[in-house]
DNA sequence: CTGCATTATTTCACTCTCTGCATTTTTACA
DNA sequence: TGTAAAAATGCAGAGAGTGAAATAATGCAG
């Protein structure tokens, strides 16, 4: 994640402003609720004009989530090492995408708290993935080329299959995050991984990363049961 | 779909008005584009006040899609016969849900045309399913109870598994609809069903129902390849 | 057919989101 | 230090969406 040796004052200030707006939005949403939080209020607390707000975020929801489209693009262009497991790698991809939100520091905890209070924001994340579907599925399709079972398919077929796989993983993440949002810690065996050994101990703190790992196990269990 | 022998004048008029607004919205979206279509314009063409518009639909998108929440609720409360195939039944469920949009007549063709021009509306459909997730997954979970592989799970685990399955099917439908939206007819074998016999001939008219059947085949193929 | 209760429709006033444009301030760099 | 690029701001305005009160249409009992 080391961008350049010299971020420069300009970029530093820009990141700083974005962070301020994001924090203000998240705090206000937590204090008085998402609907009761106006962009005027966010801008005031962040000490910028409302017009400047829209120079950084395209909506209130994006500000709360701290969605930085530049960071997302950078993340997607990053070369990814493919580890041989399509599902696991796709989960990693989605994970990286979600992490491109929420600022840079440990105020991610704040963002998570807001998401817990307002599940609609989770839906917003899903929409984001849907919007990026073309780019994401292209990456997954690239991985599929080196998989024996998919190597014989045409490029177009592989792209469709990549879309399905992406959707499958996203669906699983969705469920995991929903569970995570409802009760911060989840029963280890309640996610359908009853027959699979759960990698994390019970009562674990609410870390999305662990959620994803549980999600993989959960998905594979369901797939087995369905076949 | 026979509601009651006597709908009554009031309800008839209500359905009529909803239809008028829906038609106006779809037509305008097709003529001048979705963004260039204002609620004022829709209301004017439908010959109602803009305030009345919001008594029927909660947004421009819903009006274009003809989303009637009452119809959706009725559809969901309908008793469903479970045929023994979780995936197929779930696809049917999603299909029914989507069909609860688009008015009642053959102006569904109009709605479809608009969706083709504005894929964002498809995303809106996905969001709808996400909003109804609780109710939908409860239905699927009910089906799972009678499946040997899931019978031993707890109710909670089954609900999570139902959510995953719902998400998987939805993802597949998404892909199929995307393909359908891009080129009205799809190459029979290009959806990843290269190894499965395609049920519909090539060059078929753009019927979502067929799309779903292809989607099932597509999904099963991917699942096989992944395992 | 008439009066009354219910429901729909409309009008009005209002808040909030978001955009384009012109202006001013700040930063970068030669 | 001077200048060009970038960012911040103020302003004007369109569009979405809501609440409340007034008005019209409908259903129903008598």
Describe this structure as you would to a colleague:
2 copies of one chain form a homodimer. Chain A has 227 residues and is mostly helical. The first copy, chain A, folds into 2 domains: 1-66, Arc Repressor Mutant, subunit A, CATH 1.10.10.60; 84-226, no CATH class. Helix content of chain A is 68%, strand content 0%. Chain A contains 12 helices and no strands. Chain A has helices spanning 8-32, 39-46, 50-56, 60-65, 69-77, 86-99, 108-117, 120-131, 133-145, 148-151, 155-182, 208-226. In chain A, helix 1 (8-32) packs parallel to helix 7 (108-117) and helix 9 packs across helix 11 (155-182). The longest helix of chain A is centred in the C-terminal third of the chain and has 28 residues, at 155-182. Chain A is globular and about 55 Å long. The termini of chain A are far apart. Residues 1-5 and 185-205 of chain A have low confidence and may be disordered. Chains A and B meet through helix 8, helix 11 and helix 12 of A and helix 8, helix 11 and helix 12 of B. Chain A binds a DNA duplex (30 and 30 nucleotides) through residues 8-10, 13-14, 17, 38-40, 48-52, 54-55, 58-60.
């Amino acid at each position: 994640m080391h961008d350049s040796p010299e971020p420069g004052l300009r970029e530093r200030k820009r990141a700083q402003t974005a962070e301020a707006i994001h924090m203000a939005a998240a705090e206000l949403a937590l204090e008085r609720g998402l609907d009761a939080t106006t962009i005027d209020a966010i801008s005031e607390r962040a000490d910028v004009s409302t017009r400047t707000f829209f120079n950084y975020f395209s909506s209130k929801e994006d500000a709360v989530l701290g969605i930085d489209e530049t960071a997302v693009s950078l993340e997607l262009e990053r070369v990814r090492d493919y580890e041989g497991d399509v599902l696991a790698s796709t989960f990693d991809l989605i994970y990286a995408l979600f992490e491109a939100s929420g600022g840079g520091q440990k105020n991610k905890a704040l963002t998570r708290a807001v998401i817990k209070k307002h599940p609609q924001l989770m839906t917003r994340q899903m929409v984001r993935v849907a919007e990026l579907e073309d780019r994401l599925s292209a990456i997954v399709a690239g991985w599929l080329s080196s998989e024996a079972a998919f190597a014989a398919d045409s490029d177009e077929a592989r792209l469709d299959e990549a879309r399905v796989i992406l959707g499958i993983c996203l669906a699983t993440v969705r469920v995991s995050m929903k569970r995570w949002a409802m009760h911060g810690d989840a029963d280890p065996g309640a996610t359908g991984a009853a027959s699979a050994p759960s990698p994390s101990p019970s009562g674990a703190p609410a870390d999305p990363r662990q959620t994803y790992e549980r999600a993989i196990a959960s998905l594979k269990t369901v797939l087995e049961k369905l076949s």
